[in-house]
Amino acid sequence: MFNQPELSGFNIIEGDYSSSIIILSIIIAVFASYTALVMNQRVRQNSFFNKHLWSVLAAFSMGVGIWSMHFIGMSAMMLPVHMHYDRVLTIVSIIPAIVAAFIAFHVANKPQPTKRSHFLGGLSMGAGISLMHYIGMDSMHMEGVSYYYHLPLFTLSIVVAIIVSFVALYVFSVLQNQMKNWLQRLIVAVIMGIAISSMHYIGMAAVVFYVPKDFTFVTHMQMEDMHFLLTLIINGLGITLLLFLLMELFDRFVSNRINYYDSMTKLPNYREFERRFSTSTYSAIALIDMDKMDKRGSLHGYMAVDELMKKVAARLLEHKPSSMEIYRMEGRKFAFVSHKWVDKDKLAASMQKMVENLSAPFLLKDRNVTISTVCAIAMQEENNKRNSLYANALAILQDPNIQYTNQLVFYDENVHRYMFEQGILEDVDKAFAEDQFFIVYQPKMNMLDGHMVGVEALLRWQHPAQGLISPGVFIPILEKNHRIQDVTRWVIKEVCKQLQQWQLDSKVNCPVSINIPGECLTSHSLVNYLKEMTETYQIDPKWIELEITETSFVASIQQALRGVAALRKEGFSIALDDFGTGVSSLSYLKQMPISTLKIDKSFLDDVPHSRKDASIIQSIISLGRSLDLNIVVEGAETKEQIHFLADFCDNPIIQGYYYSKPLPALELSEWYNRFTKPETV
């Protein structure tokens, strides 16, 4: 194999290389590397598919790509002889390439890879690639042609394979979090593709072919199994790409269903309602609420209640007016929404039929079960804000005189708004006493390194009668009636308490953002209370970021500036929330002693499809950078939005459902440990 035979009576033959086929082999190596980089990134992202499945698919893609490059590279060498391949060895040779690639991804995705693990992984992968190469060489048979290996070049090819593998592991484990846009990934893929191809052609140069002196050469190289080889390569690459596309599409579909659809009834959920409601105009909403579900649960069991909800949803869908959308809301509510203007009498007639249909018995475990409902209807009026429709419908249900007798009730500003607001205000103290308020935390992710750099504390209210009340409903009422300071103080205390617990447990180590209403910002007591809580729970102020809105400044610029300056003096950082939604932000922005600019979700909703919104975001990012501010983009939910932000922002901080929904503290700790482990090299 390595010993040079006696060559008297033999001629050494050298082949010619086709430059076009060499370039093709390198392109395939680059394509395989790029695809593998993309697939491997999915291991660290939220996905319906298990991360190990993505690792296997990435390894399969990389292995098939290396193998394809090898055989195409072999066909680049032209020898004037008959050639064919041992089909069994040809197919078997792909196994070491796939195994070697899997080892690379396994090492790269370890939470704390070390130099030793990199070395062992590189050694294993280099050996696997070399084994694939030389098994492939052994599968090549040429009539009357013998060969041996030039030992120095043979050794060099293996050393190069190991070095290339080591570099690949470094790229995957250390630099993969910095490869967020396609150009960065392409550059790395080109480097890897050229490196892998170099190993192959060094290995080819190590082979010395010789033939008897009386050997009869053919005019052109004749490869009998070219069709077989091309079929394997095309099918291998095609299957890899097809699997990736199918998994990617299915993953997006499942992610959308999980986040925006109710798992029980399969109807769009409250999140989907809020998402569409924030960008679309509705003319009417009808909220159907059911009574006595708790009693029914105790009588029939909660599994039976779930089955009843499915049957209710099916009946509502069956009789839904074609012009309306239906949503499963929190608790026992269903919402019907109309985009177009609808006649009040026609709407009343349609919803009356709906509640009458629901009054018919449901067959549940061989028993007839009846339900009682009420339908609250709010319609768009000239003097009403678009986003007040849902709050108006909820105000009807808050009426203590409401009767669940399958009746229809239209919103009356003079009656229901006051009663709803009074009900909310009266329930605030009870909410404190009964722990109805709770906090969830949404991660903020640094796209450059993939680590969590902060969280935003978001207030939630689980009302015993209304279910989960949206902050967009109850916070404006608390602000209007000057009760927001009590709630803000509660949030500050709970966040400080949670920060202390995280730091004691060494679980989460990043700043927490707290929303500060304008009324609190201009209050002299805010600074004192923050100092009191941070001292009580031994929290450094640098771990707390205070988010304020533009309207806080616009309402009283001088008082707000003094309030922010006092907070900065104590060591708290300040973020300007919902930037772009105010009316005088640019004229005051340079005066605001802030450290962070948060771009409002509404600008990102239609990106990258809306050129206007994309241009606005680019302008805001440029403005923030020129003022040396951190940029946080809210509401990122799709891969297209992430790619856009990666292309147009140097180091964006992303907050949105693409990475995670808002999580309770315990779930956030588990999420943090799973996705943001530190890496060492």
Automatic annotation (TrEMBL):
GGDEF domain boundaries: 281-413
Alphabetical UniProt keywords: Membrane, Transmembrane, Transmembrane helix
Key word Membrane present: yes
SMART domains xrefs: EAL, GGDEF
Domain EAL: 421-676
Gene3D superfamilies according to UniProt: 3.30.70.270, EAL domain
Taxonomic superkingdom: Bacteria
Transmembrane segments: 20-40, 52-76, 88-107, 119-137, 149-174, 186-211, 226-247
PROSITE patterns: EAL, GGDEF, MHYT
Start and end residues of each MHYT domain: 17-210
InterPro entries for this protein: Cyclic-di-GMP_PDE-like, EAL_dom, EAL_sf, GGDEF_dom, MHYT_dom, Nucleotide_cyclase, Rev_trsase/Diguanyl_cyclase
PANTHER family recorded: CYCLIC DI-GMP PHOSPHODIESTERASE PDEF, OXYGEN SENSOR PROTEIN DOSP
UniProt name for this protein: EAL domain-containing protein
Organism: Virgibacillus halodenitrificans
